[in-house]
Predict the structure.
Amino acid sequence: MSNGVNGFLGDTPLRVVIKLLILSVAVGFLMSIFGLYPDDILFAARDFIVDLWNTGFKTLGRLGDYLLLGAVIVIPVFILIRVLSYRR
């Protein structure tokens, strides 16, 4: 059983925990130097998703505007072409 756990973790569980603790302290120190905090990162990710969501719907709204604007020209021209070709 311990060979399976060691194989999964890549080392003994105690050594993995010690490595993760040291790495966590180092990364936490660097994040503190740069002024990054977990709640800031979570809020930035949330804001990114909300902005992406809102921008997507604005784009769909603009796409609808473009569709209507183009249809004002395309539909009458299509009908005119069909009427003129129907006479032949």
User: Anything to note?
Assistant: The chain has a mean pLDDT of 86.
